[in-house]
């Protein structure tokens, strides 16, 4: 069987199961099975495929029809131009979160703290993009930190990014020029409406606070003043309906120059505030 035959068979199976973007996913999975870059897959489609690679591809297609995310099948996800290791213990890095990266990089910083770091994609990207910066990430989940540690080593950042287990600010001390977070912001009532790839396969602790979706922001804003250097910035990713509520929290917490940044689809995605100098 050729790669083209396999690709057509996989795409049909995914389409029949109602998987969105079935053709794209089939290409990504076949490229992984054949160990070739997705962009070069077309070049090898006429070639015969070995039995072991056929079996691997078919197994991944079967799991994808059950709505297991592609990143969990391949073990990696591209984020801001870098490959990150991904498992079911962490949120899948999303293009929307690159809005936070772009906003953070718009101004210089030397020390950055990432709260709820998960895969480490935010803090590691920021440190990698700024050679003179050092980073710290905290997460309650030791399993998530295991993924972040692996990504840190793969990117060669072991000496520039510290990773700590604990709740939000608890494991760290001192002040930072930049504090960032993509916290759990989905309200409990919204969970049932999520895509099965998210609802059934990503860590619930990283998705929802089990309440109104704003609990993490209350904790982050309350602790930010003690950990921001004068003139330092706080950036948080939000759900598209939460800008007003989070902005109000920041203003009430003593932060200033509050702005809302939109993602590439025009949805409110990041709230930024500054701890004014004394």
CATH class identity of the largest domain: Alpha Beta
Strand order of the largest sheet: 5-4-3-6-7-9-8
The fraction of residues assigned to DSSP E strands is 15-25%
Give the helix tally. 12
Largest sheet: 7 strands, mixed
Q: What class do helices, strands and sheet pairing give?
A: alpha/beta
The fourth-level CATH homologous superfamily of the largest domain is Vaccinia Virus protein VP39
CATH topology of the largest domain: Rossmann fold
Strand/helix succession: HHHHHEEHEHEHEEHHHEHEE
CATH architecture of the largest domain: 3-Layer(aba) Sandwich
Walkthrough of the structure:
With 278 residues, the chain is of the alpha/beta class. The chain has helices spanning 3-16, 22-34, 41-44, 51-65, 70-74, 98-105, 121-129, 142-154, 196-199, 204-207, 215-227, 243-252; strands at 76-79, 82-85, 111-115, 134-139, 161-165, 176-181, 228-237, 256-262, 268-274. The chain has 2 domains: 3-66; 89-274, Vaccinia Virus protein VP39 (Rossmann fold, 3-Layer(aba) Sandwich), CATH 3.40.50. The protein has 12 helices and 9 strands. Strands 5-4-3-6-7-9-8 form a 7-stranded mixed β-sheet, sandwiched between helices. The longest helix has 15 residues, at 51-65. The N and C termini lie far apart (70 Å). The mean pLDDT is 95.
């Amino acid at each position: 069987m050729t790669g083209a035959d396999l690709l057509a068979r996989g795409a049909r199976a995914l389409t029949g199961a109602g998987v969105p973007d079935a053709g794209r996913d089939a290409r990504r999975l076949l490229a992984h099975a054949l160990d070739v870059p997705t962009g070069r897959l077309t070049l090898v489609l006429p070639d015969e495929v070995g039995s072991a690679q056929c079996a691997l591809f078919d197994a991944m297609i079967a799991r994808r029809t059950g709505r297991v995310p592609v990143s969990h099948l391949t073990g990696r996800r591209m984020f801001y131009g870098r490959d990150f290791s991904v498992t079911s213990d962490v949120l899948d890095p999303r293009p929307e979160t690159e809005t936070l990266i772009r906003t953070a990089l718009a101004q210089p910083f030397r020390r950055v703290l990432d709260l709820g770091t998960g895969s480490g994609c935010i803090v590691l990207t920021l440190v990698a993009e700024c050679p003179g910066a050092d980073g710290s990430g905290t997460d309650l989940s030791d399993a998530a930190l295991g993924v972040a540690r692996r990504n840190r080593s793969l990117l060669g950042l072991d000496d520039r990014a510290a990773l700590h287990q604990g709740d939000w600010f608890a494991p760290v001390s001192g002040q930072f020029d930049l504090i960032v977070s993509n916290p759990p912001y989905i309200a409990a009532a919204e969970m049932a409406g999520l895509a099965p790839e998210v609802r059934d396969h990503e860590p619930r602790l990283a998705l929802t606070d089990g309440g109104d979706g704003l609990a993490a922001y209350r904790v982050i804003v309350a602790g930010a003043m003690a950990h921001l250097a004068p003139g330092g910035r706080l950036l948080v990713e939000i759900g598209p309906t939460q800008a007003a509520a989070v902005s109000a929290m920041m203003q009430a917490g003593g932060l200033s120059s509050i702005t809302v940044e939109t993602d590439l689809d025009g949805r409110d995605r990041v709230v930024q505030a500054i701890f004014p100098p004394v």
